[in-house]
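To close the section, here is one more complete example, presented without commentary so you can practise reading it yourself. The ligand is fe (ii) ion.
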Amino acid sequence: MPGGIEEVSSSRQARLGLLLGSIVELLAGHANPDERLLMQIAEQLRAAAPELQIEPTHFPAAQPGEELLYELAVDPGGGPSLYLVSDGAGTHSPPHTHQTWAVVLGLRGVELNQLYRLAGDSGGRLQAVAAEQAVGPGECLVMQAEDIHATRVQGESCYHLHLYGRALSHLPPFATRCFDWPNS
Ligand SMILES: [Fe+2]
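Output:
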């Protein structure tokens, strides 16, 4: 049974250590995992999520218009790292790449994701790929390093786990990974 805050925190850290260890094993040196491998990583994340005991008492939810990032397991060497993101109602992100692979798992609430590709001209314009994809509780989105997406919260504030191939502190600044909106 869950104990006090310290006990919950140490059991979370232990589970996070196991999770990241199994992901590093799965990667086995693949700097650019394909979709099949990313889906395997997503399954590991989905299996671990209930045991991480992510509760609003420990990780307060974002207020409307607010975006919160909690570091759950950040590799000091810049390798695969896991974050908890709470985005408040009404928030959105512009089209961007991560320049590393990414797996997003919904925990609470719904985030709408629009994927894009670069049009085949020299203008760097974006074209939407398929319809918006809703990522709700238990649902995963996997992206490779070059994939481009934009997000917006549907309804109330949400929680998602974001697992990246590299720690965010080792990626180029967010603003330099963004694109103009199509038709802007
Ligand atoms: Fe993103």
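Once you have examined the tokens, check your reading against these statements. The chain is about 20% helix and 35% strand. The two ends are 53 Å apart (CA to CA).
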